[in-house]
Design goal:
Layout: E1 4-5, E2 7-10, E3 13-16, E4 22-25, E5 32-36, H1 43-58, H2 63-78, H3 81-88, H4 95-119, E6 126-133, E7 141-148, E8 153-156, H5 164-176, E9 180-183, H6 189-202, E10 210-212, E11 229-234, H7 236-243, H8 246-250, E12 254-259, E13 263-267, H9 276-290, E14 300-306, H10 310-322, H11 342-355, E15 360-364, E16 385-388, E17 407-413, H12 416-424, E18 429-435, H13 439-449, E19 453-459, E20 478-481, E21 488-491, H14 494-498, E22 501-508, H15 510-517, E23 527-528, E24 545-548, E25 552-553, H16 556-566, H17 571-574, H18 576-581, H19 591-602, E26 610-621, E27 630-642, E28 648-658, E29 664-675
Parallel strand pairs: 1-5, 8-9, 8-11, 9-10, 11-12, 13-14, 13-18, 14-17, 16-17, 18-19, 23-24
Antiparallel strand pairs: 2-3, 4-5, 6-7, 7-22, 15-16, 20-21, 24-27, 25-27, 26-29, 27-28, 28-29
């Protein structure tokens, strides 16, 4: 392949560097395939372009509109996966490795597109939590809102997952309303660059939403502002240097760090060699050592097993590793390819030497590498290596040195307390896993190590088939960890979207606050008119539209009929004597009957724009309703959420059920699907 110089995409154009380019070589053959150079880029201009063009354009759209863009982008990239698979080959990725990276990244786009529409409003502002009463009479209240930061998200990614690493950060940032500058690791930047090229060509995203740097970040850190966000994935030492940059500290720039850590996998004492859990444990170890040639921030570096099972574990791992086909990843039967480059081979080799100060080598892959018609001598292959630490409580290296490749260390424990202590010596990890079928052990272990981990995986025979595995961060779950793992947090569903937003406390009158975030707040101004709100189309409903219904007196006969129809004969509804033994002064009406009776008061029965009941949220029964009590309902339009691309929208109604003393007896939010005008 003739090598070419990668271009960066900055301030709306593709720009080729004009300095001394870095040569990018195939991990498989050592062939020079690309050059990367960011010399000549105006990094300050990139930031300004992101803020003044990208950010302004993105924030014109609601959360739902941005989510739909992510969905369209995911579909677009899905149709072009083969392009990225082919380029991934040069990074040393097998087909499975490429699938993890490419399909995993695209899957993350789909996941955030879905969660954005389900869990965020079709608005520009996210309301965080309920209304806080700050005064006696309710005229002064508080509410938290989250709004997009007005800066740029700079994503500095690792070499091992050029696609997934980019998209798992881009998805929540874009959904939040922030433009992104992608800085892939130079050694594999050609895969990320090609994906960005396709994204730009799709014209799905607003102008300025994404830029990419192929090469160094230059002086970009000098121009970051308090509205910008930096996320970093890579080595702990590099992350610390970046985090300590003067401008990061002085401007309190948000810095999220996800660093490689000494993740562990622990075998429970109950998992004997003939158990399912033992077999699953060995399978997981082999997968984690060989996937991406062990070049994963979540890879298992410490294998912690019961003392009496140590020999069985070692023999099983040795046997399985010796059967793995390693070589040219283009071959169907090859399960592990090379490291990313020659420099990484040197780095991993040096770290193994460090580890051998307190460990011994008990396995090194000795089979020939599988060739594919060309020499692999110039490739970056590294033989899977298994080490053993006989004194894990007095040895430092296994708990502090990471060989970022197919290298792992076996160590043993005498009891569960010792296992937990060994795990903690990693000083903070992205993930720790336990293989056991004893839920008592699982509880003690999980709670024991949770303060030191971002994620804990427990595997047994019941969940193994569908388990995504030790090394697979999922879009819905938090990815990150304390201490050595960087102290940052990514993914975790909508949690990660909020990392790119500012949480602000608003204080004022209920009416004023409701106007700010476009939602009725209890105690705020309401609007009464002659037209029942159920007769109004979606567009005609206004926040605060309200009705106050007629009254209904609840009788003992009502209670008994409802008990007969529903089958709910709970003692408090059926017996005065038993009810008085509880918290009541006599028989009380069923809560669900009160809801039904309330609906009978506020529902307009004729055919109209209201299409369906969508659900109830936040239901609370505040006071009991006794026979001969009289109820009345105040129904108010709380919020409106148009459904993109559909002829309807979701209307949230604030429902307050009152008794004859104007005391609240039930409160909830009713959701209905309401038609738009034809």
């Amino acid at each position: 392949m003739t090598h070419m110089t990668l271009k960066s995409f900055a301030y709306g154009q593709w720009i080729e560097g004009n300095g001394n380019p870095a040569a990018l070589c195939s991990a498989v053959t050592g062939e020079h395939i690309f050059d990367a150079d960011s010399t000549g880029l105006d990094f300050k201009q990139m930031l300004e372009y992101g803020r003044t063009v990208g950010g302004v354009n993105i924030r014109k759209y609601t959360f739902h509109q941005r989510a739909l863009m992510l969905k369209e982008l995911a579909k677009f990239l899905t149709d072009r996966k083969e392009i990225f698979y082919k380029l991934s080959y040069y990074t040393g990725a097998t087909k499975t490795d490429a699938w993890f990276d490419v399909d995993g990244g695209i899957g993350t786009l789909f996941a955030f597109a879905s969660k954005g529409r389900k869990e965020l409003p079709n608005q520009h502002v996210y309301i965080d939590g309920g209304t806080e009463s700050l005064s006696k009479n309710g005229t002064f209240v508080g509410r938290h809102i989250c709004v997009p930061l007005e800066g740029v998200a700079l994503h500095i990614n690792a070499f091992n997952f050029p696609c997934w690493g980019m998209l798992e950060k881009f998805s929540p940032a874009f959904l939040a309303g922030m433009p992104c500058i992608i800085k892939p690791a130079t050694s594999t930047s050609y895969v990320a660059q090609k994906m960005v090229e396709e994204i730009i060509a799709s014209k799905i995203l607003p102008e300025g939403a994404i830029q990419i740097i192929c090469g160094s970040v230059g002086d970009m850190f000098d121009h970051l502002s308090l509205q910008d966000v930096v996320t970093f994935t890579g080595s702990h030492s590099t992350g610390i240097k970046l985090k300590q940059h003067k401008n990061i500290i002085e401007n309190s720039v948000r810095f999220t760090m996800e660093a490689d850590s000494l993740n562990c996998c622990v075998l429970g004492e109950d998992a004997l060699p003939d158990s399912d859990e033992f077999s699953l444990f060995i399978k997981e170890i082999i997968r984690e050592v060989t996937t991406k040639a062990g070049q994963r921030c979540t890879a298992i570096r410490r294998i912690i097993v019961p003392k009496n099972l140590e020999s069985d574990v070692i023999l099983a791992i040795q046997h399985k590793l010796s059967k793995i086909a390693i070589g040219d990843p283009a071959l169907e039967d090859v399960k592990m390819g090379p490291l990313v480059g020659k420099e990484q081979v040197k780095e991993v080799s040096a770290r193994v030497v460090d580890l051998l100060r307190s460990t011994e080598k008990i396995f090194e892959y000795s089979n020939d590498f599988k060739k594919n018609g060309h020499s692999l001598e110039n490739g970056a292959f590294f033989r899977p290596t298994l080490l053993h630490c006989s004194k894990p409580f007095t040895s430092l290296e296994p708990h502090s040195v990471e060989a970022f490749g197919p290298v792992s260390t076996v160590m043993s424990y005498e009891n569960l307390d010792e296992a937990i202590e060994l795990v903690k010596r990693g000083r903070g990890s992205l993930v720790g896993s336990l293989f056991t079928n004893d839920d008592t052990v699982a509880r003690k272990f999980s709670l024991g190590i949770a303060p030191y981990h971002g994620r804990v995986l427990i595997v047994n025979r019941f969940c193994a088939k569908e388990s995504t595995g030790h090394g697979s961060p999922m879009p819905q779950m938090v990815h990150g960890g304390p201490g050595r793992a960087g102290g940052g947090e990514e993914l975790g569903g909508i949690r990660s979207v909020l990392h790119y937003m500012q949480r602000t406390a608003l204080q004022g009158s209920p009416t004023t606050l409701g106007k700010i975030y476009d939602e009725y707040t209890a105690g705020g101004e309401i609007y009464l008119d002659a037209v029942h709100p159920f007769r109004k189309h979606f567009e005609d409903l206004k926040i605060g539209n309200s009705i106050i219904t007629k009254t209904r007196t609840i009788t003992l006969d009502d209670i008994e009929k409802f008990a007969s129809i529903s089958g709910d004969h709970f003692y408090a509804h059926m017996s005065d004597d038993d009810a008085k033994k509880s918290i009541f002064t006599g028989r009380v009406a069923h809560g669900y009957f009160i809801l039904s009776a309330a609906a009978g008061l506020f529902v307009d029965p004729g055919f109209g724009p209201v299409m369906a009941n969508y659900g109830l949220e936040g239901l609370r029964f505040v006071k009991p309703v006794y026979p001969n009590d009289t109820i009345q309902v105040q129904l108010t339009v709380k919020s409106k959420r148009p459904k993109e691309g559909e002829n309807s929208g979701i209307v949230e109604w604030d429902v307050i059920v009152l008794n004859q003393n104007k005391e609240q007896v039930a409160v909830y939010t009713l959701l209905t699907l309401v038609a738009k005008k034809p």
